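Field log, afternoon session.

UNIT: design team B
ACTIVITY: writing a sequence onto a fixed backbone
BACKBONE:
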C-alpha cells in the first residue's frame, strides 16, 4: 500500500510517498510541520540525499530523494516506529527494511544514523529461501536452533553442507546458513 501526501511550498507541489505506513496520519494539510522540515531540507540538497526527521513519541521518518530518478519534487519516506529497532526480537525489527531503503551512495546530514546503518549493512544479505532482506549480528545471533531435542543432529548449512547452521536471519526468521556462507552472500544494496 502506497500512501501519498501532497504539500505546497513556494509554489511547488511536493509529493511525499510512503509504503510502510499511512503517513496521511502524520503529514496532512492541517499539520504540515514535518512536511515543511522535509521540503526545506530537500530544497537545498537537490541530489541523492537522505535525512531523518524526528516525529512524536520516539518515532522517526527516514526520507530520501533522487532528482535523477524521480519527478522533481518527490520524497520517499520510511517510518521507523519507536518499537521497531529490534528491541522486542528480530521478528518485529524493521532495521533490515530500513537498511535496504537507504542507498549506500547517498549523502546525508545525519552521520550518526549513517554510521549505524553502515554497521548493519555489513551483514545484510538476501535470504536464499524467501528473498527477504535480512541481517545478522555475528556477536549476537549465534543461537536459535541450539536447543534441539537430544538425539537430533544440528542441521547443516544449506549452502556449504559442512558447517552447522548458525545464523538466525533477522528479517524473516529463517535459519539455514552458517556464518561463513552468510558473509559471502552479503550483497551491495543500491
Ligand atoms: Zn527467509
Ligand atoms: Zn555454509
Amino acid at each position: 500500500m502506497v500512501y501519498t501526501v501532497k504539500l505546497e511550498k513556494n509554489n511547488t507541489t511536493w509529493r511525499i510517498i510512503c509504503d510502510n505506513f499511512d503517513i496521511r496520519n502524520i503529514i496532512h494539510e492541517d499539520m504540515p510541520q514535518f512536511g515543511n522540515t522535509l521540503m526545506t531540507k530537500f530544497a537545498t540538497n537537490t541530489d541523492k540525499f537522505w535525512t531523518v526527521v524526528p516525529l512524536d513519541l520516539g518515532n522517526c521518518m527516514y526520507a530520501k530523494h533522487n532528482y535523477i530518478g524521480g519527478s522533481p519534487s518527490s520524497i520517499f519516506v520510511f517510518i521507523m516506529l519507536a518499537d521497531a529497532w529490534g528491541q522486542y526480537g528480530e521478528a518485529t525489527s524493521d532495521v533490515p527494511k530500513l537498511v535496504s531503503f537507504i542507498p549506500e551512495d547517498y549523502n546525508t546530514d545525519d552521520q550518526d544514523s549513517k554510521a549505524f546503518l553502515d554497521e548493519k549493512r555489513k551483514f545484510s544479505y538476501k535470504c536464499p529461501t524467501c528473498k527477504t532482506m535480512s541481517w545478522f549480528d555475528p556477536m549476537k545471533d549465534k543461537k536459535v536452533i541450539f536447543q534441539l531435542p537430544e538425539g537430533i543432529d544440528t542441521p547443516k548449512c544449506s549452502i556449504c553442507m559442512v558447517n552447522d547452521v548458525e545464523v538466525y536471519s533477522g528479517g524473516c526468521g529463517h535459519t539455514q546458513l552458517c556464518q561463513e556462507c552468510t558473509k559471502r552472500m552479503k550483497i551491495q544494496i543500491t
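LOG NOTE: The longest helix spans residues 33-44.
NEXT ACTIVITY: expression trials, pending approval
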